[in-house]
């Protein structure tokens, strides 16, 4: 069914134009145009995750970065060209790997339905399916209908992706600028329950906190000593440590336990305790059930940031290059 036909049908059924504009995401957007799309992506994602347990963290982070730069439009997946340095090359210490796997997922979908499913949707679905793999049930709902952007700029990535050195004010400002609030900030930071951080993203806390060779007083001293055994100097960008030690491959709410123990890896993690309101939210999320519910809702909000829909943008044929 074409988009126009959908809108007509929608108006007939609901009688309200407002709920029927083509410009928003919806459940099962590909139901008629590529009925197997979501299943193909899920199966292929699970195959990859079974072989590489680090993929859930990579995909989740890549989806976050996609959404925070120009909206969730797949721009993070584009490669640099002779004339343009793309988002993915923004920060050498970013290491948002897994791009090749996304390209592979897209190729699988293209085989069945060429030019129908956007790379932005492939990424959003893959992130959900990868994180959900061990649970055998989707942890959050992913609405679809995103289209792909054609622009990816290194400068925009640098300006929009929050730094691990951020204080609470800077973090909140970043999230607010994306239409998210303090609750989303604390809940989505829970994504750090899986994955790793490279030494150079936090070593200033160990060796040069205020520029006087000292340690960050808000970091648990015992844990700091341990981290020093892992990260020998400020410029080490190859060694990495789990962000949630002990369960770095398990998606759970243990991140908040870690943060409460002053063992949050980044200054941005520790910053969640620096504000009364956010500290209260950290405490609430120590309840596992609450965390899963809240995370699902916040991911839906994050997945809707600045989406390109309707007739804007394009459906890329290959995720690393515009059509
Ligand atoms: C609140 C602001 C945030 C900051 C400052 C931040 C910063 C970082 C940094 C510095 C790393 C380590 C990268 C490396 O050294 O390889 C990282 C990893 C990660 N981040 Fe965040 N992040 C933030 C929010 C989020 C959000 C909202 C999500 C998703 C919901 C997320 C998911 C992840 C994941 C899963 C990893 C691990 C990646 C991997 O192991 O490959 N982060 N983050
Ligand atoms: C795109 O860039 C990635 C690195 O981000 C690289 O591994 C890949 O080979 C590039 N693909 C093409 C087709 O240039
Ligand atoms: C790069 O820029 C030059 C000069 O502006 C232009 O001729 C060329 O077509 C551009 N190449 C690409 C790949 O956009
Ligand atoms: C690590 O740092 C070195 C030296 O500054 C640099 O040449 C290299 O590109 C960096 N590697 C990564 C993965 O950031
Ligand atoms: C937080 O960081 C911002 C930007 O780096 C800075 O301007 C501000 O002074 C900091 N706020 C506090 C309370 O340290
Ligand atoms: C990358 O590393 C540099 C130097 O260690 C640091 O200033 C910058 O904030 C880091 N950026 C991210 C996003 O990790
Ligand atoms: C420590 O930080 C100060 C101030 O930012 C800087 O001037 C100095 O070069 C840093 N030391 C090292 C070893 O990087
Ligand atoms: C920092 O540590 C890394 C990893 O141990 C090592 O490869 C690098 O040479 C060290 N750099 C300096 C300046 O000591």
TrEMBL record:
Enzyme Commission number: 1.11.1.7
Signal peptide start-end: 1-22
Site (Transition state stabilizer): 61
InterPro entries documented for this protein: Haem_peroxidase, Haem_peroxidase_sf, Peroxidase_pln, Peroxidases_heam-ligand_BS, Secretory_peroxidase
Domain Plant heme peroxidase family profile, first and last residues per copy: 24-323
One BP annotation, GO: hydrogen peroxide catabolic process
Annotated source species: Gossypium hirsutum
Protein name, as recorded: Peroxidase
Reaction(s) catalysed (UniProt annotation): 2 a phenolic donor + H2O2 = 2 a phenolic radical donor + 2 H2O
Binding-site residues, Ca(2+) 1: 66, 69, 71, 73, 75, 87
Cofactor note: Binds 2 calcium ions per subunit. Binds 1 heme b (iron(II)-protoporphyrin IX) group per subunit.
Residues binding Ca(2+) 2, per UniProt: 193, 244, 252
Keyword field: Calcium, Disulfide bond, Glycoprotein, Heme, Hydrogen peroxide, Iron, Metal-binding, Oxidoreductase, Peroxidase, Secreted, Signal
Active-site residues from the entry: 65
Pfam families (alphabetical): peroxidase
Protein location: Secreted
Functional note: Removal of H(2)O(2), oxidation of toxic reductants, biosynthesis and degradation of lignin, suberization, auxin catabolism, response to environmental stresses such as wounding, pathogen attack and oxidative stress. These functions might be dependent on each isozyme/isoform in each plant tissue.
Residue sites binding substrate per the record: 162
Domain of life from the UniProt record: Eukaryota
Family: Belongs to the peroxidase family. Ascorbate peroxidase subfamily.
């Amino acid at each position: 069914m074409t988009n126009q036909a959908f809108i007509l049908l929608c108006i007939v059924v609901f009688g309200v134009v407002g709920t029927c504009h083509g410009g928003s995401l919806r459940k099962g957007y590909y139901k008629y145009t590529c009925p197997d799309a979501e299943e193909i992506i899920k199966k292929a994602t699970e195959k990859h995750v079974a072989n590489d347990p680090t993929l859930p963290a990579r995909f989740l982070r890549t989806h976050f970065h996609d959404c925070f730069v120009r909206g969730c439009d797949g721009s993070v997946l584009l490669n640099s060209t002779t004339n343009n340095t793309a988002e993915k090359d923004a920060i050498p210490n970013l290491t948002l790997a897994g791009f090749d796997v996304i390209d592979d997922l897209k190729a699988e979908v293209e085989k069945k339905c060429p030019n129908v499913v956007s790379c932005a949707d492939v990424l959003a679905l893959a992130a959900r399916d990868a994180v959900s793999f061990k649970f055998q049930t989707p942890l959050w709902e992913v609405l679809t209908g995103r289209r792909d952007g054609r622009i990816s700029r290194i400068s925009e990535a640098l300006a929009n992706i929050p730094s691990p050195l951020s204080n609470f004010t800077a973090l909140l400002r970043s999230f607010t600028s994306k239409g998210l609030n303090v609750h989303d900030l604390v809940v989505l930071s829970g994504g750090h329950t899986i994955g790793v951080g490279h030494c150079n993203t936090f070593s200033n806390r160990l060796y040069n906190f205020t520029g006087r060779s000292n340690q960050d007083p808000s970091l648990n001293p015992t844990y700091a000593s341990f981290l020093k055994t892992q990260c020998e100097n400020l410029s080490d960008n190859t060694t990495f440590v789990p962000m949630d030690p002990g369960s770095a491959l398990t998606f759970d709410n243990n991140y908040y336990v870690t943060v409460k123990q002053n063992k949050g890896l980044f200054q941005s993690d520790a910053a969640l305790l620096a504000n009364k309101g956010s500290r209260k939210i950290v405490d609430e999320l120590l309840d596992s059930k609450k965390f899963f519910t809240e995370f699902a809702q916040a991911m839906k909000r994050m997945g809707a940031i600045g989406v390109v829909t309707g007739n804007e943008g394009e459906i890329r044929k290959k995720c690393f290059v515009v059509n």
